[in-house]
Design a protein that fits this description.
Distance between the termini: 63 Å
Largest sheet: none
Number of helices: 3
Order of helices and strands: HHH
């Protein structure tokens, strides 16, 4: 019975039990860190180089 009451309380607050998050919330949390890592490690140049290589391989 207590488990049902707990689930109902979580549902009213909009919180998911078990530590799961909505995928959009997880994405919003990860994007700033990803952008920081791209800037710090120069990842943008690597992405552009790879995209250029793939484009040439496909004949574009």
């Amino acid at each position: 019975m207590a488990d049902t009451a707990t689930r109902k309380a979580y549902a009213e607050l909009g919180v998911r039990p078990g530590g799961t998050r909505h995928p959009l919330v997880a994405t919003a949390m990860v994007l700033p860190l990803a952008a920081l890592l791209v800037v710090v490690f120069g990842g943008w140049d690597a992405v552009v180089a790879q995209a250029s290589s793939v484009g040439m391989m496909l004949g574009r």
